[in-house]
Amino acid sequence: MPDTTPDGRIVQHLAEEVERALQNLREEYRQAFLLFHEQELSYAEIAVALECPLGTVKTWVHRARRELAEELRRRGVVEESHDRVR
Q1: For the chain, which domains are there?
Q2: What burial class does residue 18 get, using C-beta atoms within 10 Å of its C-beta: 0-12 exposed, 13-18 middle, 19+ buried?
């Protein structure tokens, strides 16, 4: 069987690129995204933490994902995908 363990350098490079892309997001998008994906808060918990409506949190997380994916594609970090986030 082929070795499918990711190369540590590749993982580190990807992490650095994602961090750079996160810095380009609007502050509210970045906060919502990080609370959801890193802190694993629910949308409802994020709405309370950021003092905004639930629907707004969902929109911010969605837009953050979309903008991150677009930025990573634009920079050549990830390939164009037909299944990309809309």
Answers
A1: 10-74 (1.10.10.10)
A2: middle
Q: What is the pLDDT of residues 77-86, one digit of tens each?
A: 888 765 555 5
Closest-CA residue to 71 (of 29, 9, 12, 31): 29
pTM for the structure as a whole: 0.79
SS (H, E, C) the chain: CCCCCCCHHHHHHHHHHHHHHHHCCCHHHHHHHHHHHCCCCCHHHHHHHHCCCHHHHHHHHHHHHHHHHHHHHHCCCCCCCCCCCC
Q: Which of 12, 33, 41 is nearest to 85 (CA)?
A: 33
Largest CA distance in the chain: 51
